[in-house]
Amino acid sequence: MKAKIRILDMYSGRYSVFINEKEAKKAKLHPDDLVKIEAGKKTVYGSVVVSNLVKEGEIGISRDILGLHSFSEGEVVTVIPSGTPESVRYIKKKMHGGKLRKVEIEAIVKDIVDRKLRDIEISSFVTSLEINGLDMDEIAALTIAMAETGDMLDIDRKPIMDVHSIGGVPGNKTNILVVPIVAAAGLTIPKTSSRAITSAAGTADVVEVFAEVSFSLDEIKRIVEKIGACMVWGGALNLAPADDITIKSERALSIDPTGLMLASIMSKKYAMGSQYVLIDIPTGKGVKVETVEQARALARDFIELGRRLGQYVEVAITYGGQPIGHTVGPALEAREALSALMTGKGPGSLIEKATGLAGILLEMGGVAPTGMGKKMAREILESGKAYEKMREIIEEQGGNPDIKPEEIPIGDKTYTFTAPISGYITGIDNKAITGIARAAGAPEDKGAGIELYVKVGEKVKEGDPLFTIRAESEARLDQAIVLARRTEPIRIEGMVLQRIGNI
Ligand SMILES: O=P(O)(O)OC[C@H]1O[C@H](OP(=O)(O)O)[C@H](O)[C@@H]1O
Ligand SMILES: Nc1ccnc(=O)[nH]1
Prior knowledge:
The protein is of the alpha/beta class. It has helices at about 20-25, 65, 85-95, 100-115, 120-130, 135-150, 175-185, 205, 215-225, 240-255, 260-270, 290-310, 330-345, 350-365, 375-385, 385-395, 430-440, 475-485, and strands at about 1-10, 15-20, 35-40, 40-50, 60, 75-80, 160-165, 190-195, 230-235, 275-285, 310-320, 325-330, 415-420, 425-430, 450, 460, 465-470, 490-495. The chain is globular, with a radius of gyration of 24 Å.
């Protein structure tokens, strides 16, 4: 059918196509049906919303679609009902435990990127991967398909280094220190990050507190060729576009299927042209990888996948048994990271992990002798050279290079939990900490999160402060307090763990 475009001033997070109720009935179209809109060379697939917001003869489009094609008000287009894509059959094949062929994986990725698959089908695909997994052939095919359905960056400065954490551990602001340290040593490191998937703040969410993170590839090329580094959001780029779409489903389910995680990370590294990649696998109770044996197996997969993509990959298995540093949540983590860069000092877990990872990259990049990288990284951090490079990154990414940690706004609704007994901190529950910070509003509310005053092994007296919850609304604070009371994220024990008698 022919119709005139009506641009609706709204974003729906998907390609929504509004069709008048009478017209939908005539065309036998129902809510969430798939339709194709065509106008010359412009083609877009969208999900039907039946609504009298638009008149007969009009087709309403949400602003999300304008990101893909520049349709104009009143433009006449053709609207064609589109049946279920063939790729749904391949999703069901994986759902039933089948092995997907390369062409089937390519069809799924292309239909995700072309928005021919709706949220329900994408979530079914992600869930199928969580349950049935992918073998290395499937992972390699998925990685390349994800990268090749998007743009690729061509940076002249070589070698190109990269670092990426599989995430999962709260407070993991590490790479915000690693990137400027490595770039300050003269290496090129075009860092892309996702937003939070299972945590309360992804690196893109944290960096966005003090700089822009949404750039085009051309802008990134300019920034990286000028200062040797960037810290940007992969989802803003047409860089492995299927990645951010599947991440939305992962975030909703708070899962990160291993095969999809491998492809998600390495597709971005491949698209950025990264030649030397360091992968951080936080390992411990309550994170994505709980044992060193599992971490070593995943490390082998990353190294093999890198080999197939022509990238040199090394893996650092890192301690993930409790939060990194003392802060969880975008603004709180931004303050802590900025302070560490400015002073060269900060929480041991943050400084040790950042200089350790940066040291490996300095050795991989050939600017530090083997075994000397961490010492060199610490010198770069303590000398202030890393902070100077961070100022360059912030300025080139549209932020205020003079920003001070205390100037970063944080939630003003607070509640502090104190120690109910004296004893030793014997555990901090990562999942509970993340859940409380997300209940408080992170990462959407930048100022929400948790300030931790204790770490495992420390001694506390009854009444000592353990952690403060910060939120931007009383309602969110109340939700977080209820969850904290129920989950008790910090375990305190005396040396007498149990008294047993009369058994
Ligand atoms: O912890 P969750 O949210 O599951 O994983 C997502 C986080 O892990 C990676 O960290 P980095 O960008 O390498 O620092 C992603 O980019 C993102 O920040
Ligand atoms: N699944 C993912 C985990 C961490 N980082 C990513 O970019 N993707």
